[in-house]
Structure formats: C-alpha cells, structure tokens
C-alpha cells in the first residue's frame, strides 16, 4: 500500500540546558524556581487531562504543517478526527482510518484498498488520536514557557522535553487555551531541524454520533482490495 498518512512521531530526544551557578545561594534559588515552575506546568496538564476525560466524545478539525528550511520543505494539510474513548475516525490526506477499539481499518480510495491491522496496545510507538490529547502524561519533563494572545485567546505554552535517549525530537511546545483548558496547538522540533505543527481549528464535544460511527462496513467498498495483515 502506498502510505500517505504519516502519524505524529512518538519518539523525541533533547537535553535540558544546565545553568552555571557561581554560589550555592543562587543555585538553591534557581532550583526552587524551576521546581515551582514544573509543578505549575504539571497542574495545568492535569487540568487538560481531566477536561478531556470529562467528554463523551470529541470532534476536531485541524491543520498539520511540516517545515524544514534546510531541505526546502513546506507542506500544509488539513484533516478531522472524531474520538470516543479509544475509538476514532480520522480523515487526513485523502485517507480514512477507523479504529473500532480492536482493529484499525485504513481506507485508501486512490489505491482502492483497505488494510486491516490489529493494534498492540502495549506498543508505546502506536500513536492514536486519543493518545495525542494525553501523550504528555508520561515520558517528559516539562516547564512553563511563553504566553501568547491568539485572537483574544490566552495561550499558555508548556515546553516538553522527552526523557528517552532514543527520541529524535528536540522539544515539544504544547499550547493550551487557559480559559477552556483545551489544546490549541502542538509544535514539535526535531534534531534534524524539521518542525511539525498541529493546530486545532475547531474543537467540539459531546456531539450526536451515529451508532455505527466507528464500525467498518465492508459493503461500502465492494471493489476494494481487502488486505488483512493480522
């Protein structure tokens, strides 16, 4: 299958800059300040997680940008995703992915092909849209970053630094709407200079969904080749 959908990469690497402190008093004060900042960031992330878990379902329209000035790459794409628990329907770059809680169905109209795979829930590298909204709960160090005013919305950024030495990303900036506690955007910078930005254009919750919203119906694709990998 000609894969067109590229999921957000879950591996990243960086090291936190250590300040050179000349006297013990300054070192102590700096340490205390960093700890307080980390706690504030953690508290905000906890609020985001609690808010997300309070919804029955979430429907998001988003923009995905990929930029690398050295390689002269500048790509923009739009998509949407509907989530309920760990189930989802994702439409992105002409490809539809349906996850019913057990299997993923990747539908590629251009190739007239459906690929069916079973998700290994123990695989940390298996990124799903639902994980995208709570991925920050483990595997990262975090500190409060800048605050920006975006069309009247106060967006607080939190800098996430992966703790795994295998990660290829330098850092992640997670923008959170201070009032709604919804994620506004996610800016990921890789060691190779590639920057990917996911911006939420529309965030709707508790929408009326079809009973078969997350069910793959084979009869809708009579001429498609069904490729079962599991």
UniProtKB/TrEMBL annotation:
The keyword DNA repair does not apply. It holds the Pfam family LolA. The keyword Lipoprotein applies. Residues 1-36 form the signal peptide. Coiled coil: none annotated. Keywords: Lipoprotein, Signal. InterPro entries: LolA/LolB/LppX, OM_lipoprot_carrier_LolA-like. It comes from the Bacteria. This is Outer membrane lipoprotein carrier protein LolA.
């Amino acid at each position: 299958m000609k894969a067109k959908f590229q999921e957000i990469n879950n591996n990243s690497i960086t090291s936190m800059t250590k300040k050179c402190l000349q006297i013990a008093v300054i070192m102590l004060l700096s340490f205390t300040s960093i700890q307080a900042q980390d706690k504030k960031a953690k508290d905000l992330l906890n609020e985001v997680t609690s808010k997300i878990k309070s919804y029955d379902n979430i429907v998001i329209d988003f923009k995905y940008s990929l930029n690398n000035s050295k390689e002269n790459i500048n790509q923009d794409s739009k998509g949407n995703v509907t989530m309920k628990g760990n189930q989802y329907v994702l439409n992105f770059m002409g490809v539809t992915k349906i996850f019913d809680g057990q299997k993923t169905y990747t539908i590629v109209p251009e190739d007239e092909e459906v690929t069916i795979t079973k998700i290994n829930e123990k695989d940390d590298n298996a990124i799903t849209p639902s994980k995208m909204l709570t991925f920050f709960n483990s595997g990262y160090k975090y500190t409060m970053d800048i605050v920006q005013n975006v069309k009247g919305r106060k967006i607080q950024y939190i800098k996430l630094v992966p703790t795994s030495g295998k990660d290829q990303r330098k850092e992640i900036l997670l923008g959170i709407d201070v009032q709604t506690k919804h994620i506004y955007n996610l800016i990921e910078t890789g060691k190779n200079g590639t920057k990917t930005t996911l911006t939420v254009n529309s965030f709707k919750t508790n929408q009326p969904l079809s009973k078969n919203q997350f069910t793959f119906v084979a009869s809708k694709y009579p001429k498609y080749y069904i490729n079962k990998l599991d």
